[in-house]
Design goal:
Helix content: 40-55%
Shape: elongated
Number of helices: 5
Largest sheet: 2 strands, antiparallel
Strand order of the largest sheet: 1-2
Strand content: 5-15%
Distance between the termini: 27 Å
Order of helices and strands: HEHEHHEEH
Number of strands: 4
Radius of gyration: 25 Å
């Protein structure tokens, strides 16, 4: 027969509460460390790739709203030119086949049928214009957010070991 005393039960409850608080703090640190890796990676790629766009971007971490899931952080990028840098903008001098995707769309195109319209200026050596007179010769996809998520996934185990080291579950 096991005898359970009130003082022992209270002590066990207090210990479990401390353990839970410790796990919550470590979970928060784990998510923040991964998010900072994501910010650093995305920022470096955007800075390297966005010579034409004058650094018009911002990469931040935001807490996902509690009503969705308060145990998540989101690495987000914003700026006027983010999509041009992330996905590319029709690199002049490369043929349609160099960047065509599985649907047949290539740089500067919006239809795989030229009779429907659909070809931009991806093959125009003079480049193309945007924002009332700014000229562009395009840029290849930089994939800053894609590379950021890939880097974060690659660091999960290392960060988890670092943050949760010594815990025995």
């Amino acid at each position: 027969m096991i005898e359970l005393r009130v003082s022992g039960a209270k002590s066990l409850i207090a210990k479990l509460k401390r353990h839970r608080a410790d796990i919550e703090a470590k979970k928060k640190k784990f998510l923040e460390e991964l998010a900072y890796i994501g910010i650093d990676t995305a920022t470096a790629v955007f800075e390297d790739a966005s010579t034409e766009y004058d650094g018009d971007f911002d990469v931040i971490v935001q807490q996902v709203p509690m009503w969705i899931d308060d145990s998540r952080l989101a690495v987000m990028a914003s700026g006027k030119s983010i999509l041009f840098v992330e996905f590319g903008s029709g690199l002049v001098g490369y043929g349609q086949d160099d960047y065509a995707d599985s649907f047949g769309y290539g740089p500067g195109t919006w239809s795989d049928n030229p009779e429907k319209g659909g070809k931009g200026h991806w093959d125009d050596p003079a480049g193309w214009y945007y924002e009332h007179g700014k000229i562009s010769h395009g840029n290849p996809p930089a994939r800053a957010m894609y590379d950021s998520s890939k880097t974060m996934r690659g660091e999960i185990v290392r960060i988890a070991r670092e943050v949760f080291r010594g815990d025995k579950y």
